[in-house]
Amino acid sequence: MFIQFFNLKNTQCLYLVIVKFFIISLLLQSCSYSVKQEDYLLPMPNEVNMNVDSRIKYLTNLIDDNDLAVYRYERARLYLKIGRNPAALRDINQAIGEKTENIAYYVVKTQAEFSEGNYDEALKAALYAEKNGYASTELKVLLGELYYQKNNKAKALSYLKEVLAEYPDNFNAVFLSGKIYAEQQDTTSSFKYLEQALTLNPDDNRPYETYMKLLNELGLFERSAKVGITYLKYIEPNAAFAYYYGETLEFNKQVDSALVWYEKSFTLQNHWKPGIKLAKFRLRNGDFREAARLYEIALSQNPAIENGYYELGYTYEYYLDQLEEALKAYRNGNEKDTLNNKYPFYMRRVQRKIEFKNFQDSF
């Protein structure tokens, strides 16, 4: 009897073990499915899989297995973080094509289109999201930026004010407000917001450059120099800063230092603003060939530089004795420099010189 009871008990135990094993197997299968679907999308935080590139790789594997809109949407957001804007736009357009009812997708589309400079498409997507009830600080800031790009500054400010009423320390809203007020020459408001932007994010170059540009336009060069010194504590100089800082130093009568910064700006970006400054410096210092070269570069980018073609023509005519080049410069000035009406006189003068030179050469 005892033996029969023992055998029965063993059989029941064995049965329980089998049932437990079966349940555990089901749980493991369920977990493995969950890992595949969820952890690729939002992996557990650690040093490896929270890296943006690793998360993109996870999502790419998922898309290869099962191309769903949600995976494209998540990958588009990650692409935007690392500046791969065309890839983000491709993904979000495909996601919207598959699942048009998800309004959050249109916000990412707005960001992607904006990053690519497609402002009309970006505004269309943003307004669609707003119309369909999507309300967020991010969307309002985007709408402010888009209306700014469309030169509707009043509309831009209306969205930015909404953001600042609720989040007064939102950097993007603060900076863009300061930039708009600076362009409107509202010095009180622009100073307030730009200084706040510098405090909120001292590592962002944009408020410094906007502030220095405004201060230089207002002739507040000492104040601009102080802003520039603060910039240099936090940020590696770029072309725009180097130009504005050079301008500040020039008007603070530190000409040699200004020249160094103009050269740095021109080296970083071959732009006409530092180019024309350098051309004038070279002309004053007697380096006429280099001056002419720099004038040519600057005028090819901006033919409307006041007296630019006159100074180039004069350099060729009087310093380099290249009369044909001088005539060409004056002709270009006659067409493109509307502020100087004396080009016909310069052209006749050079033409007479060319005729006399040809006459001399004939003997």
Describe the structure.
With 363 residues, the chain is mainly α. It is built from 19 helices and no strands. The protein has helices spanning 2-39, 52-65, 69-81, 85-98, 104-115, 119-131, 137-149, 153-166, 171-183, 187-200, 205-217, 221-234, 239-251, 255-268, 272-284, 288-301, 308-319, 323-336, 343-361. It is elongated, with a radius of gyration of 33 Å. It starts with a helix and ends with a helix.
Oligomer: single chain
The average pLDDT value, as a whole number, equals 88
Structure class: mainly alpha
How much of the sequence lies in strands comes to under 5%
Describe the largest sheet.
none
Order of helices and strands: HHHHHHHHHHHHHHHHHHH
Short description:
With 363 residues, the chain is mainly α.
Secondary-structure map with pairings?
Blueprint: H1 2-39, H2 52-65, H3 69-81, H4 85-98, H5 104-115, H6 119-131, H7 137-149, H8 153-166, H9 171-183, H10 187-200, H11 205-217, H12 221-234, H13 239-251, H14 255-268, H15 272-284, H16 288-301, H17 308-319, H18 323-336, H19 343-361
Q: Tags for this entry?
A:
363 residues, mainly alpha, 19 helices, 78% helix, 0% strand, disordered N terminus
